[in-house]
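User: Can you help me understand a structure? I only have the sequence.
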Amino acid sequence: MLVTKRGNEMKKILSISMVLVLACCMLFTSCAEKKKSENKVAVTFAGTEAATTGQSRMMQAVADRLNATGRFNASVQVAGALSGDTDALVTQAKLGVSLVVPSDPGRLASQFNIPDMNILMAPYILTDPASLKKLPDTKLFKEWQAQLEKEGIVYITNMYNGFRSFYTTTPVKKVSDLSGLRIRGFGNAIGNGLAKYLGFANIGVSWGEVFPGLQSKTLDGCEVQVATADGSRLYEVVKNLALTKHYMLQSAFVCSSSFYNSLTPEDRDLFVKTMREAALEYGEIIRNEEEGYYDHMKQNGVTITEVDIAEFQKAIEPLYTNNDLGFSAGLKDRLFKELAE
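Assistant: Let's start by predicting it. Here is the structure, written out as tokens:
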């Protein structure tokens, strides 16, 4: 009986010892993992588009590739999880938060008062997504980088994100058909200039207000890229698409200067290289997916009109002859010259 009792006590002691050893191992592992995580570069990719869009998928791909190196702890917050306002996200980065944010050249031009940056998104200036491959190597890009760095922002690269056209409740076949329509567009100098010369009223509301606005007829249409139009189910409230392709939309990726400057030279090179490679890769993916989105719009009853783009280009010529956007003299020629070098 005494032997059995002692045996049970020994088993109990052994069991407790094993639990303690296991707990110590878990604690040691947890501390090691925590220390390992603390040694990694923490950064968040934050955007307003849905997780299914090319822009959001690109950021997830970049985060995955950076994390796979073991040197980064990158996370992705999209669909407005941190904020539905792109300018607000850029401001957070400016204030030092470790964020990478996809804005666009027109937004950045307005937010930081750099008028020449508007040329990247101005109507019918850049019309070939392939031009973005060379853009970061141009002197102009580097000058804009320097101006933004003074504001606490690092300009990394641009990605093609679709051509923007008009989605309207009434058919648009020529410029005059836009006259007097209430169209949701960019609430900046580019958007106001387009509206001025094409004759519509530019209504600056958030994207979340577009569907209900079209549904209630407080809006007559919007101008947007097809992936976003399809993802937002605009085909339920508008049945007309005029393929004006007036803007070549770009996601202009920026990050916090304090975050960027905290990176080692090796991590900085890796970060920029990964971003730029993914931007080119996903720009091509977005381009290849567009036809499928147009087909889906047709299947849902949308009439797509191939307009005379030359007519629309001629209508907005005064935007440039009057220099409404405040471009530096010879800016367009300089941009194309540097892209060709």
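Now, to help you interpret it: Residues 1-5, 12-36 have pLDDT under 50 and may be disordered. Strands lie at 41-46, 72-77, 99-103, 153-168, 182-184, 201-203, 221-225, 240-256, 303-305. Let me know which part you'd like to focus on.
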